[in-house]
Design brief:
- The chain has 219 residues and is mainly alpha-helical.
- The protein is 81% helix and 0% strand.
- It has eight helices and no strands.
- The chain has helices at residues 2-24, 29-40, 44-72, 74-101, 121-133, 136-151, 156-182, 190-218.
Length: 219
């Protein structure tokens, strides 16, 4: 009996880990932001902690019924999708503005040369929270898909599933932060920041277009 329970818990943990890993390993808005913060060496641990916490929170909400709520009220999903498109559009335009407004390499100090000035913890986490929660993709993947799979588990297996997902999330964001910190020397050159802002801006505008198309189809 104990062996059977341990096997079921391990299977649920593995399911949570593999599903979360398959969904999270991609270059999206949240991952780009964490990578940027890691390169800057700014509140990296807090960013990783928020990302793991938000994944656990959204998966748990999905298991407890939010997935059914979104499926039952399509107008709520439409509002989230439209808001996400607007946010991604603004974020992409701001990134392109940073790229265009950055002075030449010959400026006097680091800030003037295009290296971003430091920011406080709350503005960093507020932006990351907005990127996470205003992205409709997170509700499709984390809440609907992962939450629905978790809801099929029974008893303690549900929470083993959540722990597995949290393990995958933690591992991914720690690796992403480590990769960003290894890239610090590269980003000592202000031109690298301009390139990163350009890539971020183009990707965010592309995501905004994709999300807007989804909202148009839902409407």
């Amino acid at each position: 009996m104990w062996t059977s329970n341990a096997f079921n818990l391990s299977s649920a943990w593995f399911a949570g880990f593999t599903v979360c890993a398959s969904l999270i390993v991609s270059i999206g808005a949240q991952n780009l932001y964490v990578l940027r913060q890691a390169v800057r060496g700014e509140h990296v641990r807090a960013c990783v902690a928020w990302c793991v916490f938000s994944d656990v929170m959204l998966i748990t909400l999905g298991m407890l019924g939010m997935a059914q709520v979104l499926a039952r009220y399509p107008e709520l999903a439409y509002a989230l999708t439209l808001g996400g498109a607007v946010f991604l559009l603004c974020y992409g335009l701001f990134a392109l503005r940073r790229m265009m407004a950055a002075p030449d390499d010959g400026a006097a100090d680091a800030t003037e040369k295009g290296v971003p000035a430091p920011r406080g913890l709350m503005p960093v986490l507020a932006t990351l929270a907005a990127i996470t929660l205003l992205n409709p993709h997170v509700y499709l993947d984390t809440v609907l898909l992962m939450g629905s799979i978790g809801a099929r588990q029974e008893g303690a297996e549900r929470w083993s599933y959540v722990v597995g997902a949290a393990s995958a999330s933690f591992l991914w964001f720690v690796l992403l932060a480590a990769a960003g910190q290894r890239m610090k020397r590269l980003f000592a050159n202000p031109r690298a920041w301009r390139i990163m802002d350009g890539i971020t801006g183009v990707m965010m505008l592309g995501l905004a277009w994709w999300v807007a198309q989804s909202a148009w189809q839902m409407g």
